[in-house]
Amino acid sequence: MRTLMTTSLLLAAVLGGCAAAPVSGAAPPAPEKLEVRVLSFLPHDATAFTQGLEFSGKTLYEGTGLAGKSSMRAGPAGAAPSVRQELPRLFGEGITVLGATAWQITWRDGVAIERDAKTLAERRRVDYTGEGWGLCHHDGRLVMSDGSSKLTFRDPVSFAPTGSVDVGRDQLNELECVGDSVYANVWQTDKILRIDAASGRVTGEIDASGLLTPDERSSADVLNGIAAVPGTGEFLLTGKLWPKMFRVKFVPAA
């Protein structure tokens, strides 16, 4: 009887241990489904072809595109910019501000412009290979998109590439870095992805549709501007040629 009981206990322990063991190669959890809850809205320059949007402190920076119409601007959110610099002949894209330095990239010109963060005066230009779409900064490094599924990390001083991750989703456009996540507008959609910066895994999908009225939508272009409002857990959203910016929270989808 003692031998039978001992054998039964050992068998139960082995089976219990097997049941508790993690399954290798298990699929990662599905992305969290989120939507926007609009808290308020602010006026936005409806002639601005928005390519980048980012707060640094209380100052809102915006980069705009189109050849011959590109610029970088800074000032209070919802007011006329207090500082503005044009970008003649080039097609401006994403922007980011890291300390006393602001970076602005270009679409197919292969040039990144380093600016003074206060005056936006141009300091120098750095060449890079490939297209430029979105830009933000995470953990002391720059994060850049090129319209593909790849996010490239770059040195914030030299702008040299230092690594990359593949997100598995194409058309990554304007970027916003918040904590350990990168938020990416998906070009030509009303979707924003929340991406783990270390692995490239998509942890959230945000439905940002329905912000503009049908009349506003008729003269506007795509969603393409996301800026985290410091210290609030809230965001400003806008788009190319949009007449408004929306202050929102991301909440679980209904």
How do the strands and helices of this protein lay out in sequence?
Layout: H1 2-20, E1 32-43, E2 50-56, E3 59-64, E4 71-75, E5 83-86, E6 92-98, E7 101-106, E8 111-116, E9 122-127, E10 135-138, E11 141-145, E12 150-154, E13 161-166, E14 172-178, E15 181-186, E16 191-196, E17 202-207, H2 214-218, E18 223-229, E19 234-239, E20 244-252
Parallel strand pairs: 1-17
Antiparallel strand pairs: 1-20, 2-3, 3-4, 4-5, 6-7, 7-8, 8-9, 10-11, 11-12, 12-13, 14-15, 15-16, 16-17, 18-19, 19-20
What can you tell me about this protein's structure?
The protein has helices at residues 2-20, 214-218; strands at residues 32-43, 50-56, 59-64, 71-75, 83-86, 92-98, 101-106, 111-116, 122-127, 135-138, 141-145, 150-154, 161-166, 172-178, 181-186, 191-196, 202-207, 223-229, 234-239, 244-252. It has 254 residues and is mostly beta strands. It has one domain (32-252): YVTN repeat-like/Quinoprotein amine dehydrogenase (Methylamine Dehydrogenase, Chain H), CATH 2.130.10. The protein has an 8-stranded mixed sheet, with no helix packed on it. It is globular and about 45 Å long. The termini are far apart. The model is unreliable at 1-23 (pLDDT under 50). This is Glutaminyl-peptide cyclotransferase. GO terms for molecular function: glutaminyl-peptide cyclotransferase activity. Pfam families: Glu_cyclase_2 (PF05096). It comes from Amycolatopsis coloradensis.
